[in-house]
Amino acid sequence: MTKIGVLALQGAFIEHCQILRRLAVDCVELRKPADISQDLDGLILPGGESTVMGKLLNNLGMLIPIRKMISEGLPVFGTCAGMILLAQRLSEDSIPRPGTMDITVRRNAYGRQIGSFNSVATFAGKRVPMTFIRAPYIEEAGSEVQILSVVDGHIVAAKQGNQLVTAFHPELTDDLTVHQYFLDMIS
Amino acid sequence: MVENDRYSLNKQLAQMLKGGVIMDVTSPEQARIAEDAGACAVMALERIPADIRAAGGVSRMSDPKMIKSIQEAVSIPVMAKVRIGHFVEAQILEAIEIDYIDESEVLSPADDIYHIDKTKFKVPFVCGARDLGEALRRINEGASMIRTKGEPGTGDIIQAVRHMRKMNAEIRRIQSISEDELFEAAKVLEVPYDLLKNVHENGRLPVVNFAAGGIATPADAALMMQLGAEGVFVGSGIFKSGNPAKRANAIVRAVTNYQDPILLAELSEDLGEAMVGINENEIALLMEERGK
Questions:
Q1: Which of A167, B109, B142, B169 has its CA 20 to 30 A from that of A40?
Q2: Known catalytic membership, residue A27
Q3: What are the b/e assignments for A88-105, b being 16+ CB within 10 Å?
Q4: Interchain contact, B9 vs A131, CB within 8 Å
Q5: What sign has the CA pseudo-torsion B97, B98, B102, B103?
Q6: ipTM > 0.85 (yes/no)
Q7: Is A139 an active-site residue?
Q8: How crowded is the C-beta side of B268, counted as CA atoms within 13 Å?
Q9: pTM of the model
Q10: Is residue B149 within 8 Å of residue B136, measured between CB atoms?
Q11: CB contact set of A184 (below 8 Å; sequence gap of 6+)
């Protein structure tokens, strides 16, 4: 059975686990270094507050092991705050993070909560519902980054090798397309 | 074009705050300390509950200028309080694009019968509740997040514990009764049948539920999480203590690893003086009685 670790320091990690169970995938919550086992098939960095997760990753001593696993090729999927944590560059902030993907991300790119919105757009050729909550977007992507979704002229989903990111929250909808796409990257 | 379901988006913002600590702050400097310590949001207010209690008199919504200075100081969500029933204070906070409005018993109530019709707003509301009935009435009015009332500004956890235990006991009872008994239960609890049926089917509130009121230590925060809270508000407990940054940081970590007593022991060391606090039988004003 495929086993995926979901970073469970803060935010909407339970929602990812619920989707993974629907896809018959085993879900392990990662709250401290001892939870990071070597037999994980993939890693999810969920939505929440990136400043909180970055700080806790650092304080708990999980940042370096996670960065190493991603660099060594472990498939990883970051949604919203998770995308911020994977970005090599942030437009305005400095947050401790793995920073492994060749993208520049703007936090709170749509403003405050009143700017949160729903959309339906193409993800890797399929129409999927997208929920953006105080969401970021990708301002610049490196040459090796494959762009998977563009909404209103902004990149909101992308892939680089073993790394997948979305600015929106597929874990908040009933649509399994994006999680299935990530599972296909693993197998 | 997809229609934006504001209520769903607002409930979903609360989902993103789960497992986090929302801290009361009274200045941009405190807001930055809170953000650096790992707060997932801040509550901007002119006086923390302990000082409101000490000062007495009528307490109102904070100065929008002060709230805006906090919005500029941090990148995390900013919440602010309005008086129960004061829908114009809420309109003002919506106009400055607040991320969450707390219709709060901590301030002096503006209306002793009606709460704000929160369905009329685009921005989300969190409301206090002591039991399942209060929670579902607030949700029916449009609240997209619930917190226990506890007894704010006391540093005494007893009411928050009482409210969380009562809420959960009532949820378990509603889950276990038969479907044809729900009509009568809705009548007794004075709540809409549909919301009660939702609780019966899912065994939880239809929105995120945090603990608030009297949380002063990492152990208090972990206690509320083990009792089923999905996150905590800390009001006076941080900036009324001897070392706010260190205490804030410890409470954040305690909420993440609330089931790890070894780590909780480490986090509880050397925090300096906790807020002095007052016991529930020593206080003249019970804020939890406001708004039922």
A1: A167
A2: no
A3: eebeebebbbbbbbbbeb
A4: yes
A5: negative
A6: yes
A7: no
A8: 16
A9: 0.96
A10: no
A11: none
